[in-house]
Model the fold of this input.
Amino acid sequence: MQGKRVLLIVSGGIAAVKIPEVVRRIREQGGHVRCVITEGGKQFVTPLSLAALSEDKVYDDLFSLTDENEMGHINLSRQADVIMVAPATADIMARMAAGMANDLATTVLLATDKPVICVPAMNVRMWEHAATQANLETLKQRGVTFVGPVDGDMACGEFGMGRMSEPAEIVGALVNFFNAGPKPLAGRHAIVTSGPTHEPIDPVRYIANRSSGKQGHAIAAALAAYGCKTTLVTGPTALPDPAGCDVIKIESARDMLAAVESALPADIAVCAAAVADWRTDTAPDQKIKKQAGADTPALTMVENPDILATISKAGNKRPPLVIGFAAETNDVVANATDKRTRKGCDWIVANDVSPSTGTFSGDSNTVHLISETGTEDWPTQSKSDVAQQLVIRIIRHFEAAE
Ligand SMILES: Cc1cc2nc3c(=O)[nH]c(=O)nc-3n(C[C@H](O)[C@H](O)[C@H](O)COP(=O)(O)O)c2cc1C
Done:
């Protein structure tokens, strides 16, 4: 979205605290942001932080002599390529649907002929209320597009639909919007695996690992943003579904393999999930009871299916580009180089997951891309930037092959 101009309207929901991150990410992608904030919005995020991050004035007053003189409510929308309302409260959606213009934000929204994207955020009951749902329908019919909301924990302590999409998803939706012309991966299908797997010991216990799914989900979101039909097969994570992906939720390695195989054929497979190597040989369907004096149960482990190797050796069903991930704690590049040959995949993204790196749960990653032609060391960057860079590589790979 290099050079694109986003007019970001911030209304008064608790999720406004995440908007500085949205501003930062838009600018990271080369976009310009100008913010308008409602009185409610100012209760949750300061105009000063938005001004500092956007490097622009923040507008809030409809009746300001100086602002109206310098910019004016009509010009605010004229100078934008798109208007995004994030977070969009129940209140601002109601005022938009009713055609009200009783503050700067709604006046701009009523006066604009630019595309409008709303990112709702509210308590689940506010979201499910018939009034909000009717306003949503009205706005959709008028051409407003929506990003989220998603299911999840809410600041009010409840759980359900109404949580604002994460900043990466919001910016992904903007990238999608600006890429609406030719999409370099349109017509292609990618399968991405993400997250950990849970291997049952009995109905209440399981073996898991520390994968958060952040990297795999970011890759799925980036592929979808470039027009790729994306099937995300994910183990249990706390993450919202990335925008634009078909999401299949599984628990065990065997479930994951079955879901991946049923999603074939594909042009691209990205195996980013941390699949458990082993499971217990049996998983009784009743809880194993602790009994006084009885021996501690011994768990016998058996090997799980190797999803990356299975996909890489799937004969005529093999996707033309298979990318594996190697989570290593020592000799990262050497181990990953060996893994590429053993598994038969095309590329390996190797990352150091030693506890000191914080890779598993953190937001950044230091990776090495290993291919037939050698190893590239990428700088430490956010997981969404790793995803972007990887997807750019995928695009170039297919362009070169054509
Ligand atoms: C602590 C607090 C949190 C709130 N969070 C939300 C919210 O997440 N979503 C929402 O629609 N309204 C929320 N509200 C209510 C709005 O702030 C209120 O409807 C306000 O009038 C919205 O004004 P605006 O849409 O002009 O910004 C919250 C209110 C308070 C006091």
